[in-house]
Amino acid sequence: MRVSTNSMNSVLLAQTLNVQSDYAKALNQQSSELKSESLAGLSGQAGAVVSLQSDLKASENLATKAKKASSMVEIAYSSITSIAEIVSKAKVEITAAISGTVSDVSNLVRDADNWLVDVQTLLNVTMGGYSVFGGSGGQSKPVDMSLGGATGSAYYQGSGTDWALMVDGSTPLTYGVRADATAFQTTITALRSLSSMTSTPDTETLQNIFDTFDSALTQLGKLQETLSDQSDSLDSVIDAQTDFQLYAESALDSVRAVDVAEATANASQIEVILKASYAALSKVTNLSLTDYLR
């Protein structure tokens, strides 16, 4: 009878190679803590991973934009606070002039000129190269006090479109304020009225300017309320996206991650099998015809 070990060798070799492949996979899972570093290794769960990764990236992008918008709103709020302080100072000085405490209004005129420069600077503030008060796509310096007359918004050279954040692909969340807002127009009108005084004004004129400043202060306060509401809305968007990202990352881990202890034990078991397979393959490979005839 003719005895051949070729068929047995082929079977054992194929089995050993399969065990070796399983061992390599187990070691990789142990070191990477992932079931597979490629989508192909996740079988039917690959689609879910791709979808979650896409949603996670979109959420991170939205959160980043919302944080930038929130920063812009904070800068706008701070600038308006500074403008409101200017208005309050102007009211104090006008009150002194009306009461007769100050007879020389030249200082008031000079202060008004300086305040106009300050307001222009505050309204031309930028963040990351974008104008905070210039509207979406507006130029970096939307306010030029050399333009326009005593009233109106001719000083404004920015965009006519508000900043907006697309929250769900169809619903825009507008934020920020433009430098042509009524509150700023009123403030600038009052400052220009002070700046343009050439002689000692009568009480009625000073009172009218005072009233204009008073109205401006109220309007500036309402703008700050609007910005506060916008800040709350943006914070809600950021919080919602943060919660979603935690959920998505957890879901991805449940699909991709492995239990390290379990992976280590599995690798050890496969290593034992692999050693046994190598031993069996070595023994069969070294068999001779004499071994079969004993």
From TrEMBL:
Sorted UniProt keywords: Cell projection, Cilium, Flagellum
Keyword check for Translocase = no
Taxonomy, superkingdom: Bacteria
One cellular component GO annotation, for this chain's record?
Answer: bacterial-type flagellum
Record-level Gene Ontology MF annotations? structural molecule activity
Tagged with keyword Zinc: no
Q: Supply the InterPro entries for this chain.
A: Flagellin
Classification via Gene3D superfamilies = f41 fragment of flagellin, N-terminal domain
The molecule here is called: Putative flagellar hook-associated protein 3 FlgL
